[in-house]
Design a protein that fits this description.
310 residues; Rossmann fold; five-stranded parallel beta sheet; binds guanine
């Protein structure tokens, strides 16, 4: 009865529902591309080794692509695959006109240098937005036209959720907690482009709670379960929780039970925040939807077609 999710339902940013709508719009756009241009967007997902979590992610990406009408091809390579073998596959995909997006699931086994892999993917097909050409285009604001940056999926999804909830973000104080290449850095760049005043905070930041309390927008992407407590949050702030952490949640019936939590302590945070993404059901579903959006955008650019706005 006192469940904060029920009491404060209007504060919850429902990423699952937003992602479903986005995937529908993508499906419609794919249908139009087929009808009007004979173009079938194609995504190739490469997985090296048999990490169970990666297998689930890759399967979900493939299923979501097919559901949106995107042709998905899976490449499962053995754990012992050499870097040269993986680069040969990437070269083949780079040169395949039916493949518009290439994603190599990370992490890769130790014998393979992830940077060599990312560098080998043609920037136009780099739907993760990890290639230095794309990070450079993002950093310099090259966001339109056939040579626009491919933007990493997770921060792209976070910005969509923020703009949907808050509208114009200009002038807002944003704190990005975490400085990874995949989330923190591109997130800070996107928020700067949206005319926020951006602080990138991290494990070495002094008075971290005070810094976070200044934020109108707080994006937590540090990978530390429930680190951000309610008293780190400015009343009314929008909180985007990128963390996906599995923690022990033993019950009498199941002493080994685990549950998913974010980097934010949801129950205390929702009391203070004006809007907040839950885990699961917040940012996670947006990442896959944005991967599909990037694939459609890439397919259009590779065929001289103006991409749809999602
Ligand atoms: N592993 C965890 N997240 C990601 C992602 O967004 N892209 C890729 N390629 N691998 C990942």
């Amino acid at each position: 009865m006192n469940d904060p999710r029920t009491l404060h339902a209007d504060k919850i940013i429902d990423g699952k529902a937003f992602a479903e709508g986005l995937r529908e719009r993508i499906g419609t756009a794919v249908g139009k591309l087929k009808d009007e241009h004979g173009l079938m967007p194609g995504l190739s997902v490469v997985l090296v080794g048999d990490d169970p979590a990666s297998q689930v992610y890759v399967r979900n990406k493939g299923k979501a692509a097919e559901a949106a009408g995107i042709t998905a091809t899976d490449h499962r390579l053995d754990e012992t695959t050499s870097q040269a073998e993986l680069l040969a596959l990437i070269d083949q995909l780079n040169n395949d006109p039916a493949v518009h997006g290439i994603l190599v699931q990370l992490p890769v086994p130790d014998q393979i240098d992830p940077n060599a892999v990312i560098d080998a993917i043609a920037p136009a097909k780099d739907v993760d937005g990890f290639h230095v050409i794309n990070t450079g285009r993002l950093a310099t604001g090259q966001m339109t036209g056939p040579d626009a940056a491919m933007v990493p999926c997770t921060p792209l999804g976070c910005r969509m959720l923020l703009e949907d909830r808050l509208g114009d973000l200009s002038g807002l104080d944003a704190v990005v907690l975490g400085r990874s290449n995949i989330v923190g850095k591109p997130m800070a760049t996107l928020l700067t482009q949206a005319s926020c005043t951006v602080t990138v905070a991290h494990s070495r930041t002094r008075d971290l709670a005070d810094v976070c309390r200044r934020a109108d927008i707080l994006v937590a992407a540090v990978g530390r379960p429930q680190m951000v407590a309610g008293d780190w949050i400015k009343p009314g702030a929008a909180v985007i929780d990128v963390g996906i952490n599995r923690i022990a949640a033993p019950t009498e019936d199941d002493p080994d039970k685990m549950r998913l939590v974010g980097d934010v302590d949801f129950d205390s945070a929702i009391e203070v925040a004006g809007a907040i993404t839950p885990v699961p059901g917040g940012v996670g579903p947006m990442t896959i939807a944005c991967l599909l959006a990037n694939t459609v955008t890439a397919a259009c650019h590779q065929n001289g077609i103006e991409p749809p706005a999602f």
